Amino acid sequence: MTTNQLIQQIKKKKSFLCIGLDVDLNKIPQHLLKEDDPIFSFNKAVIDATHHLCVAYKPNTAFYEAYGLKGWKSLEKTIRYLNEKHPEIFTIADAKRGDIGNTSTMYAKVFLEDLAFDSVTVAPYMGKDSVEPFLAFKDKHTILLALTSNQGAFDFQTKTVDGKALYKQVLETSKTYTNSENLMYVVGATKAEYLADIRQIIPDSFLLVPGVGAQGGSLKEVCKYGMNAQVGLLINSSRGIIYASNETDFAEAAALKASELQKQMAVELSHHFIN
Amino acid sequence: MTTNQLIQQIKKKKSFLCIGLDVDLNKIPQHLLKEDDPIFSFNKAVIDATHHLCVAYKPNTAFYEAYGLKGWKSLEKTIRYLNEKHPEIFTIADAKRGDIGNTSTMYAKVFLEDLAFDSVTVAPYMGKDSVEPFLAFKDKHTILLALTSNQGAFDFQTKTVDGKALYKQVLETSKTYTNSENLMYVVGATKAEYLADIRQIIPDSFLLVPGVGAQGGSLKEVCKYGMNAQVGLLINSSRGIIYASNETDFAEAAALKASELQKQMAVELSHHFIN
């Protein structure tokens, strides 16, 4: 999917919501456990109920790997379902991979070609030749970890490197990578005030923002500091939506929570694009 | 496996060789492609021929994920075979994972509990709460990326952070993590001269050293600067050993290459522990 197609979807749906499909068998409605593939059944129901309210889905691969072969099968079925039924939706493999050149190419093929996700999250620690293999895929996107939403982000990411915070070095250096136009960035909502600085370095890039809701970030603040002329934001919510209920009404409850966020996003969009 | 058990194996075998099981179906002998599970057949033959010459095996998960469900099955069979037939061998899941707390716990369970590897490689970018979940497993080891062997290592790892290279900050900060005694570190052999500095910070830790051979690093140099009183080194070789031949004699050829390295290691051990 091209960035323009994503922007069109955002404008059409008045939503820049990404729903995190982080499925934990201990948290889903227990009646689903009788199904052949409870994870896929859960995802399918959530997708069917929410696809008109969001523009992206993001399964975190850890939740699927946790169930071994069965989990990988559920992941395959989920992305195939999305690509067949909702090709207009932007898909993110939240895999946080990164390895030396040839090995990164293997990861890139798995997620961007074989599973046919639109994008994959990548860790920047190993530098250029670990990231560029992901950038080589046309109309696919590499979402680089810049400033994450967890406490550990302060261990290294915010430390000063040659006069500038490490996450800023990551942003600036990554702009020099081949095919850098395929880059997006993870920036945690719990650090919304950093977004103004970040927009100085990457005014045009899309940001994937986790941490709104469960982790305490504010949608309003994120939009204030992070929105650009092309919106430029995907706001992720996982637990707050998919575990809104663990009864038989879980999909409707998820849709209700997604709808609340979508309405807030519509308000933000009208503020930013009328003024 | 405890660190002491690993050291005992090194002394017994006069070897600190780790063999990287990075299996690419395009590079293995073509007669194996007729087998049910060519990757496992290849690994089993290599393991049977080399287990007395090395103390560790390290499958890089990218090579298995690349083949989807089949690949994961081959990885499962390989680690089960190792744990059943050669429980004295140290096993490394080279997965380079790392995510926020709960999600890192899921990855840790997959590799250290379900697949029962002795250790897993982890990327440090997300800091303390992304690493500590891996450290919580008793007699298991977390091998943190410090200074990698690729060119991209110079993008961020060697940059100066608060007066010190980032990889040194990673070493120092990680020493403060809960259960830090379960840490080992990846340090590339292509940067052997850095090892003296590294030993100032972490005199006692084991280092996993890729990049000897194919990537140009020297065993002698690595031992000169990196060996400590408990040896403290695992030197990895992948392609140089497992692809020594792609004919029917591939396992014997792998054993010959492994044996050459083991002999050089025996010489290094005798130098360092007699003087």
TrEMBL record, chains A, B:
<keyword id="KW-0210">Decarboxylase</keyword>
<feature type="domain" description="Orotidine 5'-phosphate decarboxylase">
    <location>
        <begin position="16"/>
        <end position="254"/>
    </location>
</feature>
<dbReference type="GO" id="GO:0044205">
    <property type="term" value="P:'de novo' UMP biosynthetic process"/>
</dbReference>
<protein>
    <recommendedName>
        <fullName>Orotidine 5'-phosphate decarboxylase</fullName>
        <ecNumber>4.1.1.23</ecNumber>
    </recommendedName>
</protein>
<dbReference type="InterPro" id="IPR013785">
    <property type="entry name" value="Aldolase_TIM"/>
</dbReference>
<comment type="similarity">
    <text>Belongs to the OMP decarboxylase family. Type 2 subfamily.</text>
</comment>
<dbReference type="GO" id="GO:0004590">
    <property type="term" value="F:orotidine-5'-phosphate decarboxylase activity"/>
</dbReference>
<dbReference type="Pfam" id="PF00215">
    <property type="entry name" value="OMPdecase"/>
</dbReference>
<dbReference type="InterPro" id="IPR011995">
    <property type="entry name" value="OMPdecase_type-2"/>
</dbReference>
<dbReference type="GO" id="GO:0006207">
    <property type="term" value="P:'de novo' pyrimidine nucleobase biosynthetic process"/>
</dbReference>
<comment type="pathway">
    <text>Pyrimidine metabolism; UMP biosynthesis via de novo pathway; UMP from orotate: step 2/2.</text>
</comment>
<keyword id="KW-0456">Lyase</keyword>
<keyword id="KW-0665">Pyrimidine biosynthesis</keyword>
<dbReference type="InterPro" id="IPR001754">
    <property type="entry name" value="OMPdeCOase_dom"/>
</dbReference>
<dbReference type="InterPro" id="IPR011060">
    <property type="entry name" value="RibuloseP-bd_barrel"/>
</dbReference>
<feature type="active site" description="Proton donor">
    <location>
        <position position="96"/>
    </location>
</feature>
